[in-house]
Amino acid sequence: MKLEKPQDVLLLGPGPSPVHPRILEAMGQHTLGHLDPDFLTITDQTCALLRFVFETENQITFPVSGTGSAGMEAALVNIVEPGDKVLIGVNGVFGQRMADVASRCGAEVVEVEGEWGKPIDPEALEKKLSAHNGVQLIGLVHAETSTGAQQPLEPVVELARRHDALLLVDTVTSLGGLPVAVDRRDLDLVYSGNQKCLGAPPGLAPITFGERALRKFRNRKSKVQSWYLDLSFLTRYWGEERFYHHTAPINMIYALFEALSLIKEEGLDDRFARHKKNSRALISGLEALGIKPVVAEEHRLASLNAVRIPENVDDQQVRSRLRRDHLIEIGGGLGPFKGKVWRIGLMGHGSRRENVERLLKALALTLNELGYSCSGEEAFAEAGKVYQA
Ligand SMILES: *Cc1c(COP(=O)(O)O)cnc(C)c1O
């Protein structure tokens, strides 16, 4: 049996995001050996491009084999030792996952809970930091994909420095879509994933370790409990020595290389501006349909637009019709947002005017079919105003 060609579905959910044809073409090239000199050149170039996108000079910057969650595990498993005190901001699914992973590393986890759809309040963090002496690491999600909220990082960096704690940031849904700026912000440990704003297919998790994080790693007393993700092995392959540990996912690295090259060609600032503009146009259009955003404007993510499903509209019916009749995927809500919220991703190559317009049209048609009356033309016109401004 031969693979039946998958349909060209427009991916406007919480990830994976649409993959640029240049990336798919790069993935289809000949597989080289993982120690082949030509492939090693590509790995060096990929790491240099990652430093560009992370905006860092950190030497230890490379893609972990595995999806975004492997980046999360790689960060925590290498830095956290049993008994360490770790403070995690939990205002959505991914903060919760980070707390879970930290506890599996044997950490004493202190959770700072926040309302879904809002960032974690730095004052709440500060309170817990003072109440629990000796916190060694603060973990936060920059772009909480389950809620569409963006975490301001500057006040937390300041807190981390004052309390002598490391700052770990999940940038899975921000890297390549909004500024992460590792060095400018002085973030200690940052990971991401291929398939959100970087725009490659899932399979790699870029990560970068700053000097303070490395110091904590080097001073470990216990063995890293994951053989696969042990940084001392990984850096021997990704560093000068080129020591075999596990086989690098060659064609995935081609894909990441191409995705990062596309970002470099576009320029970070232009790319961030594009994400912002398309998100604003989408929200304007949706508001004309009577659909309201979940997150207040100042904390709204450009890459993931969470919006409230109107009363008496069935979540599943709308999403399955969008997929069946219009070949568009959008995301449903998780946890307390299940059935109440749609998550519309405009990430990487997906963040384009034609996609915003195609979704607004298809959504208006679908809603009218299901008895919710609204004007697609009006939505289209409102979105258009954003592009003309
Ligand atoms: C998607 C996502 C992850 C997990 O990535 P996977 O590729 O699904 O393993 C982690 N954190 C955030 C914020 C995400 O959006």
Features:
alpha/beta; globular; four-stranded mixed β-sheet; Aspartate Aminotransferase, domain 1; Aspartate Aminotransferase, domain 2; seven-stranded mixed β-sheet; single chain; 389 residues; binds pyridoxal-5'-phosphate
Kindly provide the name of the CATH class of the largest domain: Alpha Beta
Q: What is the beta-strand fraction?
A: 5-15%
Largest sheet: 7 strands, mixed
Count of DSSP-assigned helices: 14
Mean pLDDT over all positions: 97
User: What is the SS-derived class?
Assistant: alpha/beta
Number of domains: 2
Percentage of helical residues?
40-55%
Shape: globular
In the CATH hierarchy, what is the superfamily of the largest domain?
Type I PLP-dependent aspartate aminotransferase-like (Major domain)
In angstroms, what separates the terminal alpha carbons? 52 Å
Radius of gyration: 21 Å
CATH architecture of the largest domain: 3-Layer(aba) Sandwich
CATH topology of the largest domain: Aspartate Aminotransferase, domain 2
**Ligand species:** pyridoxal-5'-phosphate
* Element string (H = helix, E = strand): EHHEHEHEHEEEHEHEEHHHHEHEEHH
The spatial strand order of the largest sheet comes to: 2-10-9-8-5-3-4
Give the strand tally: 13
